[in-house]
Design goal:
Helix 2 links the parallel strand 2 (39-44) and strand 3. The chain contains 4 helices and 5 strands, in the order βαβαβαβαβ. It has 121 residues and is an alpha/beta fold. Helix 1 (16-34) runs parallel beside helix 2 (65-74).
C-alpha cells in the first residue's frame, strides 16, 4: 500500500501537522507488525512548508515536528515540500531537514495517481 499524506497547516498553532505525522508514524509501525509493506509519502504545502526547517526548538514535553519528520524519513518515508509554497514564504533556499526535498506540483500529481490512499490535513 502507498499512502500520500498532504499537510497544509503550519507546524505549530494547530495540531493538524502533528496529527498527520502521528498517523504516518503509525502506518509505518503497522507495516512492520503485519508484514505488509506500507510506503508513506508526506507532501508539505502552504504553511506546512515550514515543517521541514531544521533546528526547531520546542519546550520539553511538547511535540516536535522536526523529530517526527526525521523518524518518518529514517523508516523509509518520503518528504517533499511544495517549491512554490516555500518560495512564497522565503524559505526555498534555506537548509531543510536531511532527506526532505523541494518538489513540484507535477511530483504531487504523480504521487497522487500512484498512491492507494490520499489523506489531507
Amino acid at each position: 500500500m502507498k499512502y500520500l499524506i498532504i499537510i497544509n497547516d503550519a507546524p505549530y498553532g494547530t495540531e493538524k501537522a502533528y496529527n498527520a505525522l502521528r498517523l504516518a508514524m503509525q502506518l509505518q509501525k503497522e507495516s512492520t507488525s503485519d508484514g505488509e509493506t506500507k510506503e508513506v509519502r508526506i507532501f508539505l504545502m502552504a504553511d506546512a512548508a515550514t515543517c521541514a526547517l531544521p533546528n526547531q526548538n520546542t519546550p520539553a514535553g511538547y511535540y516536535n515536528i522536526e523529530r517526527m519528520l526525521k523518524s518518518i524519513l529514517n523508516k523509509g518515508g518520503h518528504v517533499r515540500i511544495c517549491g512554490t509554497c516555500a518560495d512564497a514564504r522565503g524559505i526555498k533556499n534555506l537548509p531543510l531537514i536531511e532527506g526532505a526535498q523541494i518538489s513540484t506540483m507535477a511530483e504531487l500529481a504523480a504521487w497522487t495517481v500512484d498512491s492507494d490512499k490520499v489523506i489531507t490535513f
